[in-house]
TrEMBL record:
Its cofactor is FAD. It comes from Chromobacterium alticapitis. This is FAD-binding oxidoreductase. Signal peptide: none annotated. It holds the Pfam family FAD_binding_4. One of its GO terms (molecular function) is FAD binding. Keywords: FAD, Flavoprotein, Oxidoreductase. InterPro entries: FAD-bd_oxidored_4_C (IPR004113), FAD-bd_PCMH (IPR016166), FAD-bd_PCMH-like_sf (IPR036318), FAD-bd_PCMH_sub2 (IPR016169), FAD-linked_Oxase-like_C (IPR016164), FAD-oxidored/transferase_4 (IPR051264), Oxid_FAD_bind_N (IPR006094). The keyword tRNA processing does not apply. GO terms for biological process: respiratory electron transport chain.
């Protein structure tokens, strides 16, 4: 179906000739110059017919009009830190990348309203660098550096989602260009926290992976920077204990609990073996899993109080056998342990990564079931888990030992993935907690999403993009 929707070669050539006349000099790349834009952080690769680098909303609109007319397909792209291949063209060489990298202005900043309107190409780190002197930030905390458009397209979460939410929760408004044939611009950027004047259309585009429109600007709800903070690392007997401890931390610290990240002991141990410069904060402990806990507040002067309350809580959890040991530490020393896990595990073999979300109350049962299943069905493979336990997000890595990857061809890997996702579904969870659908998850979307929801998504896509001019993923 995709092939039928793509431009015939003559249409693509005509589109690229028109695009060249719409774009500023040097903003249409061909051939070798496209190479940096053809892969994302998942390693998914494609081949671009061209890369288009517009510098204004008007140009994006003109490009989408031309694309619909010539039946060309454009794939919106941010900083390519996505992990499902959603921002890279397919291998046909007939899709063009629409990179928003040249649209990086901070259009508006209103410190008294705690809001900012950023263009789609402005990166999270650059936005936060500009906000820092004003004591403000956009509190999405990820190991990558997404662009504003990518934050919206992927609805990025991150390690402080427990307290601050995902991109959706921090978004006040959007500017979106539609692939409706007219290149209509939806200006929904008003930085209003209360706005019930009609249907909240911006919600349609959040997390849609560039399939329904091109985000050209986003209006963010900013937060005050933390002024008090406490970070600790705890050894726990098992994940059931982690769940009770999480509940206790929430009871004691309320909305100041910023992060509750849990990693299985095998994942931490593998990371320490891989990166000897990292130090175990609780060397000698024998634990089933570890938790990295952060408590923080924008209210200054709370450090001593947080410490006192945390010590009392840890003592009572220790008495109940729920925490074996714990240590306070600087955030800069403790977070690298958590952030190094994916890299370390990737270096230890051939990793098969899963990004699943479950009701957090079911995480322990699910993880035990997953371990039992893997031991029974694939005894030579190892399962490692880490992730955003506090919000039910869990990154699983099934590690194929070196030399075994050859025995696991694409069909066998797809079966393994599907069986594990079935286990996730049986425990009430979803196959993509953070990273979205994209080509890497398209088959699982079809298998695990309710048919009526798929039908509605496909209908919406046809309505907003009748010529299939946009995005890597077709919903129908
Ligand atoms: C080391 C590492 C750690 C990560 N940790 C996390 C994490 O904790 N939580 C999490 O949620 N994610 C995480 N990610 C995933 C990733 O960073 C996010 O998905 C990211 O937000 C994507 O932003 P980007 O600008 O790189 O977008 P891209 O990768 O370029 O694009 C992502 C998707 O958005 C679409 N898109 C991009 N720009 C636009 C636009 N202007 N309009 C419409 N659609 C657009 C693309 O078509 C694509 O489908 C991590 C990635 C890495 C590499």
């Amino acid at each position: 179906m995709d092939a039928a929707l793509l431009a015939p070669a003559a249409g693509l050539d005509a589109f690229l000739a028109e695009a060249a006349s719409l774009l500023p000099p040097g903003a249409l790349l061909r051939g070798e110059d496209c190479a940096p834009y053809q892969a994302d952080a998942s390693g998914c690769r494609g081949q671009a017919a061209a890369v288009l680098l517009p510098d204004s909303t008007e140009t994006v609109s003109a490009l989408l009009r031309a694309a619909a007319r010539h039946r060309a397909r454009l794939v919106p792209q941010g900083n390519r830190s996505g992990l499902v291949g959603g921002a890279v063209p397919d291998g046909s060489g007939r899709q063009a990348v629409l990179s928003l990298a040249r649209m990086r202005r901070l259009r508006e900043f209103d410190p008294l309203n705690r809001s900012a309107v950023a263009e789609a190409g402005l990166s999270l780190s650059e936005l936060n660098r500009q906000l820092e002197p004003h004591g403000l930030w956009l509190p999405i905390d990820v190991g990558s550096d997404p662009a504003t458009g990518g934050l919206v397209g992927a609805n990025t979460g991150g390690s402080r989602l427990l307290r601050h939410g995902d991109a959706r929760r921090n978004l006040l408004g959007l500017e979106v260009v539609l692939a409706d044939g007219q290149g209509s611009v939806l200006d929904l950027t008003a930085p209003l926290r209360k706005n019930n004047a009609g249907i909240d259309l911006k919600q349609l585009f959040i997390g849609s992976g560039g399939a329904l429109g091109v985000v050209t600007a986003a209006s963010w709800d900013l937060k005050r920077l933390d002024a008090s903070q406490l970070t600790l690392f705890a050894a726990l007997p098992d994940r059931e204990a982690a769940l009770v401890a999480l509940d206790a931390f929430e009871q004691h610290f309320g909305e100041t609990l910023s992060a509750f990240e849990v990693m299985g002991a095998p994942a931490l141990n593998a990371t320490l073996r891989q990166f000897p410069a990292l130090r175990h904060p609780l060397a000698g402990s024998v634990a089933g899993c570890y938790a990295l806990v952060e408590i923080a507040s924008a209210m200054p002067g709370l450090d001593a109080l947080l410490q006192e309350r945390a010590e009392a809580l840890l003592a009572s959890l220790h008495e109940r056998g729920l925490i074996l040991d714990a240590a306070f530490g600087q955030a800069e020393r403790l977070w690298p342990l958590r952030d190094s896990l994916p890299l370390a595990l990737a270096a230890a073999g051939t990793p098969l990564s899963f990004d699943v979300g479950l009701p957090r109350s079911r995480l322990p049962a699910f993880l035990s079931a997953a371990e039992r299943w893997l031991t029974a069905e694939h005894p030579a493979l190892r399962l490692y888990d880490f992730g955003h336990f506090g919000d039910g997000g869990c990154h699983l890595i099934v590690l194929l030992p070196r030399g075994m990857a050859a025995g696991y061809g694409p069909a066998k890997l797809a079966m393994l993935k599907s069986a594990l996702y079935q286990l996730v579904a049986d425990h009430g969870g979803g196959f993509s907690a953070e990273h979205g659908v994209g080509p890497l998850n398209a088959a699982f979307y079809r298998k695990f999403t309710c048919p009526a929801a798929q039908g509605l998504a496909a209908g919406l896509q046809r309505l907003l993009d009748p010529a299939a001019a946009l995005g890597r993923h077709r919903y129908g």
